Amino acid sequence: LPPETTSFAELFGGAKKSDPAKSVNLHLAYARVEEANGNRAGARNATDEQRASYATARKYYQHALTLNEKSVDATIGVARMDEVAGRIGDAEQGFLKAVRLDGNSPRSLDALGQFYANQKRWNDALPTLQRAVAASPDDKDIRYHYGVALAKSGQIEQAMPQLVDALGSAKAHYNIGVILYFEAMSIRLRREN
Prior knowledge:
Elements: H1 8-11, H2 20-39, H3 48-67, H4 72-84, H5 88-101, H6 106-118, H7 122-135, H8 140-152, H9 156-167, H10 169-192
């Protein structure tokens, strides 16, 4: 810690019980750190350590919701942790709640669209991500998520302009190559089983 601080909490605004907004932000910061720890080796096939990080992250997101039940960031965080834990129904309800709370904002639509894409629910993912892009056309992250979902759904021609806008030509072509490679490997593994 820097010498002028005495605790981790002070690094995030010195949250106190008398300041609920700072306390919510502190819990969100802790949750994001734990979620990042869990993500280091990927959410799928998680180790015990990763599962513990995700469980801790969920507790912090849930506590932030206790402090502010309308926190969209905490709602999305709980939904992501539910998805990682395999509670797909709860996750979907959480993402839908975030969309309702946030008035169909680009960030909540993007989170919901990514969830649908992770489930390979292309008929839900693509229009949701398209709405997110339309609401925030300059957001390269959202455009990237839309492009990846298009590519994974087999719509390579439609994915290219999205990925080029988000990443540039060389990185877009690389990403398409990686997606096609993993899709081919997935098909091969299904045939062998």
